[in-house]
Structure formats: structure tokens, C-alpha cells
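Appendix B. Chain record.
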Amino acid sequence: MDSIKIVGISGSLRTGSFTKMAVDIALQGAKENGAQTELIDLKEYELVSCDGREDVDSYPADVQKMRTQVKEARGIILGTPEYHGNMSGVLKNALDLMGWDEFEGKMVGLVGVAGGSVGAMNSLLSLREVGRSLHCWVIPKQVSIANAYEMFNDDGSLKDEKLNERVKQVGDHVAKYAHLHMLGKSAEFLKAWEREIENPGAESYQQD
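C-alpha cells predicted for this chain:
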């Protein structure tokens, strides 16, 4: 497992970002499963808007750095705040600056945060659509954190221990599936995938 690299992308530019805190927690889960982890905090990157240029190598250095970091990873955790019912513009732009070379065949986990009580389910649904377009495996487990201003401790952990554990499980599962996929253990991979959510009904939807 120590040969597996998992990167987390925080799609928020806000100082003291709850999205970054959530991605950090998910990465802890991957690290506890033995994976190498790395955080990509988009606040620290000078990214330009994707303009569809054919020569992608002509993009600035931070774009190339981000693309390389994601390309080297076997699994990716995407974190976003929910703005106006969807993912943040900065995360969507970062995804637009990448493509199949970075994502195809990779394991992807999703976490979202929102200031309101509804949560970030619209953003997570949109990210699943993006994942399908990028030909990656978006794991069934995902977490939406509502009322984010009330949910985090000063140290970045979640006040609700069960919720904290569920966010960690996102990273844990990304690492687990990436490991099985890398080893070519198709039967084990598919059995684990099929058992991922025992009852994907209303109760599970409300929890995640």
C-alpha cells in the first residue's frame, strides 16, 4: 500500500477553508490505510482560466505542477464548497485544466461542504458527472457536510466523531480500491465495490 499515492484537491480559496479541513480528514483516512498522501490547496496555485488552447504545455508553471501531481497519483479526493447549488468555480476550472491523462482509470472520492442545512449534494452529483466524463472510478462513498460553520473544531477535526470517521472512510476507500485496481485483482475489486453500500435508499442518502 505504501506505493499508492493519493492526492486531495481543495476547491476553495477562502482563508480558514472548511473544504480544506474536510479534504485533510479524508487524506488522513488514506494515510492510515498506508497510502502516501498529498494536499493540493488551490489557494496556493496561480491558475489561469482554461481557454481551450491546444498546446497545454504553454500553460503557466502551476498548471503543469498540478497536472503532474494528479497524474502521479493512483487516487484523487475532490473537495468543494457548494456555491449557488454547484461546485466552486475554482475547482471546475482546475478540472477543466486537466483531462484523461490525469484521471482516466483512477479512483476518486468526493467530499462537499455547505453553509446551509441542505448540504452539498448538488455539487457532489455534478462531480460524479465530471468523473464519468473523465473515465474515472468515483467511489460510492461520499460525504456532504451541512452547516459547516458549526461542524468543525479549531484543530480542523469534525465535532461529530461519526461524521469525522465517515469523511476518513472516503480516503480509506479510495486507497483500498486504488490498491486492488493497481494489483489487477478484478474479482476482489468488484466484490468490494458491490458491497460498498448495502442499502442505497433514503436513509443512506440523508446520511451522506
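Further analysis of this model is presented in Appendix C.
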